[in-house]
Design goal:
five-stranded parallel sheet; globular; alpha/beta; binds N-carbamoyl-L-aspartate; four-stranded parallel sheet; 13 helices
Amino acid sequence: MCIRDKLYLDGPYGRRPGKNSSSLSQSDGYTVSLLTIDEYLRQPVAERLPYYQREGRLYHVMMSQQFPRPLMEEIFGVANTLKAMSHDYEGLEFLSRLLRHKRAMLYFTQPSTRTFLSFLTACQLVGITTGEVQDPALSSEYKGESQEDAIRVFSSYFDLVIMRDPKPGFCEYIAYRQDRTGFSVPILNGGSGKDQHPTQALLDLYTMHRSFQRMGGISGKRYAFVGDLQRGRAVRSVMYLLANYEDLDFYAIAPKGFQISPDLQLHLGERGVRLHFTDQLNEVLPEVDCIYMTRVQDEYDLSGESGKIDLANFSLTEENVNLLPKHAIILHPLPRRQEISSGIDANPRAMYWSQLRNGVYIRAALLLYIFGKNEQLPIIQEKSRS
Ligand code: NCD
């Protein structure tokens, strides 16, 4: 039985047509009943995870929980090699041939600068041809086509869909639906509402990994997370990923009502992370090895709740930045607002510009990994802070 046939029959996907479920017609007249998005997401994460793999290998990239430490560190190694090979013409020429036979669709229905461009550049680095829709008003969605149908169209033309959408869990649901059509392609989550942003988390961890290479690594360090810890998908995904390491202290510095949500707190507790909650930034600064700053995600406000936050209490300035130990690093997924003064950009602790450059290598490494091309690269060890 081929993988495609097996997928129709296995696991949470297989189901008799129910009252509220919809169905997809197969070309042979065979109809598959489908769960609704709510039904699908109601299944525990642990049960959904196996469906994002093929033959034990990463296939759809949906959430940080898919990346155990050995896999993550393998991807870091590939990213190191890509970084080293990108410095000269021969290296770039070699890389650009690796996935020349693949095409990727970038489908971004929520604003993006970095993630979109970083994926685009990553595709170009390894030779993938790209197509894009960033404004549904310019696609047939304007004529009333569903997003599910739009993505079904993409999967007919492309070998991979990279998407961002404001609805939490929607990328996962799309992967589920797409797998049921018989024309499955890997789907990569480039940001799913307030939920997760796994590739951002990978590049964040890669930056920590490189920064702490000569300081004993990521384990055993103290991390501060500042700002909107409840609705920031990047910071959520980072915490999930970091929890793969040992002996960690997390200082969660958030305004009232914007603290880490209970599901994530539970996960961190189960992984043995020592969690400290506070809204006193300056007291924490001297204690930490890494500070992860975030923007208040006011696009998700229901009634202007962000407007009540005193942002000065959750900002790094040219004054308080020097309370950090000298070796500490400052990260931010960007875009930033006032939470990091631009006067700090030249501070040796500021790693957010390196962090964003690392994103291209991590995403390209992920693409190579998904298509099984990572093994064709030489192993190159790199030693540097960024
Ligand atoms: C983040 C996002 O979109 O979640 N940005 C990014 O992808 N680099 C963070 C944010 O928008 O605050």
